Amino acid sequence: MSQVTDQLLKTFNLRSTPTRQEILHLFLRKDYALSHSDIESEIAEDIDRVTVYRTLKTFHDHGLMHKVLDDGGALKYALCTDACSATEHRHEHVHFKCSVCGQTNCLEIGIPHIKLPPGYAAGEMNLLIQGVCPGCSNQHV
Ligand SMILES: [Zn+2]
Ligand SMILES: [Zn+2]
Ligand SMILES: [Zn+2]
């Protein structure tokens, strides 16, 4: 489909298939996190639910995408930045959800260190800020 998606799949040691290409291409076109249903409504109808699910899991397991938790409980995925690899996802950045357009974006802002009470061991951290995105707050941007 495109050289960019081909190259990305190659970088992450993934075999290139039309489905992987199509889903990856969709993420590159949109610059916000996508849920299963977002993806299903955008891609070709002959790609079934299970295939979408498996493809996302594969992308996640290979360090190509990370999960974005949403307040609505829907699991979304977003493309990872260069820092991630198949063995380790290393980004604890802030996610911003716009209450007007409903889009969730990755922000290049790290989550501040949080001191936990004794006995608590931190694992994964997620920080979701909700508000209004630049596109919705000022249409002249
Ligand atoms: Zn990652
Ligand atoms: Zn918005
Ligand atoms: Zn993110």
Features of the shown structure:
141 residues; alpha+beta; 5 helices; 6 strands; globular; binds zinc ion
Q: How does this model look, in words?
A:
The chain is of the alpha+beta class and 141 residues long. The chain has five helices and six strands. It has helices at residues 3-11, 18-29, 36-42, 49-61, 134-137, and strands spanning 34-35, 65-69, 75-79, 93-98, 104-110, 127-131. The strands form two sheets. Strands 1-3-2 form a three-stranded antiparallel β-sheet. Strands 5-4-6 form a three-stranded mixed β-sheet, with no helix packed on it. Helix 1 (3-11) packs across helix 2 (18-29). It is globular, with a radius of gyration of 16 Å. It starts with a helix and ends with a helix. The model has no long low-confidence stretch (mean pLDDT 89). The chain binds zinc ion (ZN) (3 copies). One zinc ion (ZN) binds at residues 66, 68, 78, 93, 95, 106.
Outline:
With 141 residues, this protein is an alpha+beta fold.
| Strand count | 6
Distance between the termini: 32 Å
**Could you spell the SSE succession in H and E letters?**
HHEHHEEEEEH
Which overall shape is indicated by the principal axes computed on the Cα atoms?
globular
The radius of gyration computed from the alpha-carbon positions, rounded to a whole number of angstroms, is 16 Å
Uncertain runs? none
- Relative strand content: 15-25%
H/I helix tally: 5
Named once each, the bound ligands are: zinc ion
| Mean pLDDT across residues | 89
**Which bin fits the share of residues in helices?**
25-40%
Taking strands numbered 1, 2, ... along the chain, how are they ordered across the largest sheet?
1-3-2
Query: What characterizes the major β-sheet?
Result: 3 strands, antiparallel
Query: Strand pairing plus helix content: what structural class?
Result: alpha+beta
